[in-house]
Amino acid sequence: MKILYIFIFCICLQTISGNLFAQDKENLSLKYRYAFSIEPVYLFSGGLHINAEKRLTEKEWFELNITPYYLPLAEYDYDYGAWSTINSGFGYFSKLQGIGVGGSYKYYFAPLFFINPGVSYTFYKVKYLGTDFYPYQEDGLTYYSFERRQLSQIFNKFNLNFYIGGRTPFKRSFFVEYFVGAGHSFSSYKSGKKSFDDTMFGFGYTGPYLTTGVKLGFNIR
């Protein structure tokens, strides 16, 4: 709820600055044709989310993004694991590798406010500490032992999303952008292994979700 109040407060400030900005005879946004930004919140999940935008018309932009993920195999507690992030539902895992790509369309319905529908795909490879039956040979016979080992799970996630947001004026090259939105995830993974689907941000979650974020970036002429 605090995030919602902060977002509403930002909208009020942006509305005031947007009205002043609109009174300027020169449309400053037309000075810039490209923009690059990052979303720092991904760093807490082992990712680096990079956005590249191109202006299509006075009010329209097209955006591509890429998000590499990496958390190295680390020492872990025997009963848990080394890492715990929002994408694992704060469950424990030992290693993360992955890559995400996406694209979106941005339309400014007001000088500093936009809508932003988009799609994305993310591949995750997650190692975690789990138990399973493992075969071994003895005197020509096959036996199974129940052991705790490092296991791997592969996730393929598709997202459809729709954001509404605002940004600081185009007067300077540096900008801050914020947004809230909703979407729907479609995830696939190998059954019989850990699914990490307990929360709407989980690696294996399928269903609707809510999100918010902040971008820090630069406009380029």
Overview of the molecule:
The structure is a single chain. The chain has 221 residues and is mainly beta.
Write the layout of secondary structure elements.
Elements: H1 2-22, E1 34-39, E2 49-55, E3 60-71, E4 83-84, E5 92-93, E6 95-110, E7 113-138, E8 141-167, E9 174-189, E10 207-220
Q: What's the helix-strand series?
A: HEEEEEEEEEE
Q: How many E strands? A: 10
Low-confidence region ranges: 1-26
- Count of helical regions: 1
Note the beta-strand portion.
over 45%
Strand order of the largest sheet: 1-2-3-6-7-8-9-10
* Rg for CA atoms: 22 Å
Helix content: under 10%
| Average pLDDT figure | 86
Q: What kind of sheet is the major sheet?
A: 8 strands, antiparallel, barrel
Distance between the termini: 38 Å
Structural class: mainly beta
User: How would the global form be characterised?
Assistant: elongated
Quickly describe the structure.
With 221 residues, the protein is mostly beta strands. 10% of the residues lie in helices and 58% in strands.
What are the defining features of this structure?
221 residues, 10 strands, two-stranded antiparallel ribbon, mainly beta
